[in-house]
Amino acid sequence: MSxxxxxxxxxxxxxxFRKNYNLITFDSLESMQLLQLLNDVLGEIDPxxxxxxxxxxxxxxxxxxxxxxGILKYKPPGSxxxxxxxxxxxxxxxxxxxxxxxxxxxxxxxxxKKRAYLAxxxxxxxxxxxxxQDDTVADINKQYEELMEAFKNLHKECExxxxxxxSTAEIRRDISxxxxxxxxLIKRVERLKKRVETVQNHQRMLxxxxxxxxxxxxxxxxxxxxxxxxxxxxxxxxxxxxAQLQLKEMHHAVVDSKPESLMKKxxxxxxxxxxxxxxKIPRELESKKNSAYFLQKVIAxxxxxxxxxxxxxxxxxxxxxxxxQLIEKRMMKYEPLDSKFSMYRQQASIISRKKEAKAEELQAxxxxxxxxxxxxxxxxxxxxxxxxxxxxxGDEFKHYVNKLRSKNTFYKKKRLEIAEITAEYGILQxxxxxxxQRHEAIQQQLQAIEDKKGISGYSYTQEELERVSAVKxxxxxxxxxxxxxxxxxxxxxxxxxxxKKASLAPVIKELRQLRQKCQELTQECDEKKIQYxxxxxxxxxxxxxxxxxxxxxxxxxxxxxxxxxYINCMKRNLEIQLQRAKEEMKAYVSPDPQERRKAIREQxxxxxxxQENLGKKLREKQKVVRESHGPNMKQIKMWQDFEQLMExxxxxxxxxxxxxxxxxxxxxxxxxxxxx
Length: 676
Fold this sequence. Notes:
This protein is mainly α. The chain has a domain at 1-123: Actin-binding Protein, T-fimbrin, domain 1, CATH 1.10.418.70. It contains 20 helices and no strands. It is elongated and about 185 Å long. The two termini are 64 Å apart.
């Protein structure tokens, strides 16, 4: 509450009120001062209410404020009893009533100003229905409504122009800038004319330039026409391709089809299209029209705040709750005429919903098929542009697939040969590495033996000595021995390599067989895996279909059980109704007048006669009221005039009494002076 009062004081101290209040002075205001302050705020929102409340009666002030608050859609808190307390507090100027109103008004002053301005023109005057029977009054009321609609449209256009961001100052600046550019262009044209006039044959040159400009424009238009014709040609080719594709499909369909199947298909299409035209599309069109009507109605309403929307949502929830309660009461109530057809209505509604769902699914499937056909045509055209050949179909595609399979088998064989050669190359490469390692080991052993014998670098030293001594024979002999040793060593190594090859040959042969067997087993495993996946998918689909069938059968069983129970209930109701009908017939045929009076037909006959008599009396009374309406209105007018006349007399009498009382006081004062 303190925050509320502080907010009110801050707003009242600002423009346009400028009250210079603080919390203490505002809290110490009396009831009349609070009412005047509330009236000042209302007068700022609507200038018609800028009056002094001391010059009018409290009832008139409260009535005027309540009417304006109702137009501004102020909702006082609480229930109906609190509403009467709110009216009483508004008349007496109670602080708990005035403070929330001031807080609400000062929070949204600009919005409420706009609402009050619109209410001045959009609050419709309620004309009684008997007055609207007059043609003149009806025409004037119609013109009044048309003017109200025109005002709504103009106000919307004005708000759109205000929110569009264009101001008059910007438009004026743009106009002035355009005028300046126009003047500059005129000056440039004049200067160019003066320059051209000095040139010989300027008229002919101007004519040639004009013709050049016309030819350029014509060239641009021709280029545009050429592009349009290219586009039209492309679209025509696409249409031709679609038509050819449809023709092929129709040929394929006609080859294997019969007239009965074609007629059945055409009947299904006709039934579907007639359902769309007669039921689905009109229903959708009607719903769209209703939604458009409600949207226009919402647009025509003045702007609403979040609080108004919350109130509307609360009202909607309350109305929905009431509707649900009424539906439950109606369902609980025994109504045999409605219960007869409830089952059939339910089944019909279920069938209609299923029909609508299937129609929507069919429409979506057709749209998807048409989009897929368009994509196929695009892909076909792209393939023709890239490869220049048509897409394979039917037997050609099968032949192409068989050719690819034969190439694939040939490729696999060559790949196996390459793998075998690669494996053999790896073995030889490994053998070479082993020989190199053994050669390096032998060299290291030779070096170690030389070091051990103390003749490290013997060969190098011996060569140097032979070269120094120039004994060629010894050198040749030494070289011969060295070569013999090396040849013997190479022979030994070759023999060892041959032995290793001979020992490894069966292992390599067995390894090749094992690799080939491994590849065959791998291929067989892949084939088995594919078969397993396909079998598992088939079993899964069968399981899902069986589950759906079981679910459908369970639902059908439940439905049949509910139908059985419903039919039993209907049978009991019909038996009861038959018993009542027999009793009614027995009472109606009975010779006893007392029993006959108990019959429902006799009761309704008496009620009809009573209602007819009552209608006759009411029509006579209406006739009397219509005949006496004019004199009664004149009499009311005379009584009102008489009341005004008596009021004037009362005021004159009160004024005269006041004047006589003042005169007596003056006379008494004069007498006292004389006595003194």
